[in-house]
Amino acid sequence: MASFKKTILSRGVLTVWVLVFGTIFILMLGSVLGSVLFQIKLHQNIKASNLAAQIAEAGINYAKWHLAHSETDYNFNGLYDYYDPEGSLVGKYQLTVIAPGGCSAGVTIKSVGWKQGVESQKRTLQIKYAKPALARYGFLTHTNAWFGENEELRGPFHSNGGIRMDGIQNSLSTSAKQTYTCGEENGCTNSSCKSPCLWKVGPKQCECPGIWGSGRGGLSGLWQYPVSNVDFDVITQDMLTLKTMAQTSGIYIASSTTFGYHLIFKNNGSFDLYKVTALQPQVQCSDGSTWFWESNDILTQTFVRNYNFPASCAPVFVEDNVWVEGTISGRITVAVARLPDISGTNAKIIIPNNILYANSSSSLGLMAQKDVIIPLYVPNDLKIQAVMLAQKGHVWRYHYPDYGYEPYRTYAKRHRIETYGSIISRDIWTFTWVNNAGNVLSGYAETSMNYNANLTFDPPPYFPVSGDFTTVKWEEIPSN
């Protein structure tokens, strides 16, 4: 009897152990299976996420292709199917395209991609796609240029003519000419026409390489010629379009019926507008070929009102001559033109005093129908932080004679001018007039032109661009 009880007890204990270990085994098996299933699910999600990124990138590439074939058509937002090479539907991408505007010169392209049936694993890519602005040049001109020994240029510069480079440079200079005729305005005469230039007896002219001079840029490999022309027709922006923008969403200022307006920028994102009521007496000046009498200096003015910068970055358009100075806080472009465009009535911009940026994110575009002029009555040391564009004329200061009486005695010669941005001048540019020996006759003795690289793809509002689209910024952003 005792033995029978012992057997029953042993079998009961065994059953308990079987149940215990069986439970443990089932739990472990469940855990292992759960882990395996989790890893499978995770792997599937990773594959779906990676594929979603590829699909989103395909959307970006399609947007680029679309703009390459129709660069002004930005109306292709929407949902697109994505197929593999065999023609099977793999997934979808959603495109959102934001066209260039006043506050941004580039196209913003956002693409959200996902695998078919796995919308929980979306990936979102976004790029800024832009053409380089003409502000990518520190200096750009359609004609011959001469940089003197006391002139310093920082940033790339280009001329569709020839370049005499006697100054200091830190970047590439390019000319569209293999050779060119260097005239007296660039210090080239029969007696001064020396190697590498050659005096041509028949036409009596000095023929020089596309870029030459006493500057050390050539030895540093910074001179390149000939290269392709820069199309200055692109620079001639449609002033009528800018006028319409100003009238609808910016600031439009009609003719003063007097001499023009004076804009004084303030460091709070606004400017005071004055009407110029009288000019200083005319003074003798020269454009390099002709002497004449003219005044570009304000004598009296009356306050009109204060304007805040347009929130949309729409332009300020003035249908008259404009004097500009002050501190810029924000992004703004001032365009001046008399329309319809009639030769002899074209408007100009005059800079009588410093123009400074309040911070590194500020930018100013000055677009003149004709000239951008530095007048007679200016500080001995002048700073201009802006992109200056003379569509059909010059960025320059006239040659004022150095007479021994006022105002010439004080103002004909000035000490130093420093610019930060770009100078774009269709015709001859200069702030300094020298003789054949290089001695300063009039203007600024020292010139320093500094390049603002940030303006290449982020120029002042509505500033001209040219060339091909380039990916400026690429990022992945969180998907909603």
Structure write-up:
The protein is of the alpha/beta class. It folds into three domains: 2-131 and 469-477; 134-160 and 229-455, no CATH class; 173-227, no CATH class. Helices cover 18% and strands 40% of the residues. The strands form six sheets. Strands 5, 7, 8, 10, 11, 16, 17, 23, 25, 28, 30, 32, 33 and 34 form a 14-stranded mixed beta sheet that branches. The longest helix is centred in the N-terminal third of the chain and has 68 residues, at 2-69.
Q: What's the average pLDDT?
A: 90
Indicate the low-confidence ranges by residue numbers: none
Strand percentage:
35-45%
End-to-end Cα distance, whole Å, is 76 Å
| Rg, Å, rounded | 34 Å
The total of helices stands at 4
Number of strands: 35
Shape: elongated
Specify the structural class.
alpha/beta
- Major sheet size, sense and barrel closure: 14 strands, mixed
Helical fraction equals 10-25%
* Whole-number count of domains: 3
